Amino acid sequence: MQTVMKKTRMFRTLLIAAVILVVGAVAYQERKPKGPDLKGDLAQCLTDKGVKFYGAYWCPHCTSQKKLLGDGMKKVTYVECAVYGDPQAQTQACKDAGITNYPTWIFGDGTKVTGEQSLVELADKSGCPWTGR
Predict the structure, then answer these.
(1) pLDDT over 90 for what percent of the chain?
(2) DSSP code string of the chain
(3) Tens digit of pLDDT for each residue in 84-99?
(4) Cα(49)–Cα(62) distance, rounded to whole angstroms?
């Protein structure tokens, strides 16, 4: 009987130690300084410089472009050109901007480029810094 009680205490002690280690590791990760948000910084700079990304929900190249930007996409000025339910239709904003291909990027100076752009190309064309080269 005493052996069973000793094993039970040992198990509880090990379980408590494991829980403390896990809680400590999680707390450490939350306090650990995060690295720079390079894509987010680039995306914010693009927006600050008046750059707009025109795309369509059904466009695979637009999807790839969004994935390349990752969480930074939340900071990009994105204009959806497709009308949901009618992939042949285009929104008036995109008609007014003269969008004929997807993705299309229009820069602050009016320069327009189509197709997927690398982060380096976006930085170079916009004058935004990109240190992730």
Answers:
(1) 65
(2) -HHHHHHHHHHHHHHHHHHHHHHHHHHHHHHSPPPP-HHHHHHHHHHHTT-EEEE-TT-HHHHHHHHHHGGGGGGSEEEE-EETTEEEEE-HHHHHTT--SSSEEE-TTS-EEES---HHHHHHHHT------
(3) 989 889 999 999 999 9
(4) 21
Cα–Cα dist 77/117, whole Å: 15
Return the number of other C-beta atoms located less than 10 Å from residue 86's C-beta: 8
122: closest CA among 58, 41, 59, 60?
Answer: 41
Estimate to the nearest angstrom the gap between the alpha carbon of 40 and the chain centroid: 7
**How far is residue 43's CA from residue 122's CA, in Å, rounded to a whole number?**
9
Average pLDDT over residues 113-123: 96
Taking each helix axis from N to C terminus, what angle separates 119-126 and 38-48, rounded to the nearest 10 degrees?
A: 40
Of 1-15, 23-37, 118-132, the one with minimum mean pLDDT is: 23-37
Structure tokens belonging to residue 13: 């002690």
Task: Using pLDDT thresholds of 50, 70 and 90, give the confidence band for residue 8.
Answer: confident
